[in-house]
Write a structure and sequence with these properties.
Structural class: mainly beta
Order of helices and strands: EEEEEEEEEEEHEEEEEEEEEEHEEE
Helix content: under 10%
Number of helices: 2
Strand content: over 45%
Length: about 300
């Protein structure tokens, strides 16, 4: 099992993107706005509540401006899985973290392929891998092999790259492609991955629904459809020599969104969110049995 602690994406890190921030004009302190006018300020979209002119920036003026969330360019870095960055013809962006990054995960992806290229200023291209986002999970016999349609990553929508070399001065360029079609990505998480232990059989997965279901006195059901999120209860073996490191790691990532990877080949065991409970039992002289519950973000 591995954990990638997310790095906050800033203007200094996101050095290139082919998604433009042109949905709305940028906010101006001397501009007169009408109600419902929208502006961009510090990579977020704000909507004017009442007409007028105010010199206070929108993020500090909640009485006049309503925060509508990140711009299309920055939605893939806003810690909201369901808030997607999208572009027709593919998405390309370059990260310059200026620190070691050896793992990157792309979540809630709607595309055909994801390619990650790492370029070191001295050694040149040191990493270049492509994931074809196709699934053969429905191929169970020869008939389905020849005639069943391919299932895109709309159902298996996660791409992880866990073998990036440790090059602190390298740039990371990501290409998300689907020909001339629309491409979407919900979240991009990158950073240093930490090895926790070995994920065991007995690990459980689930879905938490936020939909509302009300039943009146006559038995009539009213459903308000809302979003849902993944959760996972991992059963992990941790070497006792690594137990102190793991305990300190979980203290450090408390309330920090991370990618928890039970098995990189099983998308259902990859959850982006917060851990809610970590418990370790020193069961044997060399191995501890641990349980970890992770609540996924929407």
């Amino acid at each position: 099992m591995r954990v990638i602690k997310s790095i906050e994406t800033t203007d200094a890190i996101l050095t290139y993107s082919n998604i433009l921030e042109d949905e709305h004009p940028f906010w101006g302190d001397d501009t007169s706005y009408n109600a419902l006018d929208r502006v961009i300020y510090e990579h977020k979209i704000y909507e004017r509540i009442v007409a007028g002119t105010t010199p206070t920036p929108p993020n500090l003026d909640q009485s006049n401006w309503l925060d509508l969330g990140a711009t299309n360019k920055y939605r893939m870095f806003d810690n909201i899985m369901s808030s997607v960055s999208s572009r027709v013809g593919g998405i390309q962006f370059t990260l310059t973290p200026n620190q070691v990054v050896n793992g990157i995960a792309l979540l809630n992806v709607n595309a055909s392929t994801v390619r990650v290229v790492m370029n070191d200023p001295v050694e040149g291209v040191v990493y270049d891998q492509t994931r074809e986002l196709r699934s053969s999970s429905e191929v169970t016999d020869y008939f389905s092999y020849f005639f069943a349609p391919l299932v895109s990553l709309t159902d298996l929508n996660t791409a992880v790259f866990l073998d990036l070399p440790s090059k602190p001065t390298a740039t990371i360029t990501v290409y998300i492609s689907s020909g001339a079609a629309l491409v979407e990505v919900g979240e991009v998480v990158y950073g240093i991955q930490s090895i926790i232990g070995r994920t065991n059989y007995g690990t459980s997965i689930g879905i938490k629904s936020y939909s509302r279901k009300d039943i009146d006195e006559f038995g009539k059901v009213t459903v308000v459809k809302r979003k849902n999120s993944k959760y996972c209860e991992y059963d992990v073996d941790i070497d006792n020599t690594n137990l102190v490191f793991v305990q300190r790691l979980f203290q450090d990532i408390d309330s920090v969104p991370c990618v928890f990877i039970g098995n990189p080949d099983m998308e259902e065991l990859i959850v982006y969110g917060f851990y809610s409970d970590f418990k370790s039992t020193i069961s044997f002289p060399t191995v501890s049995k641990c349980t970890l519950r992770v609540e996924g973000l929407i």
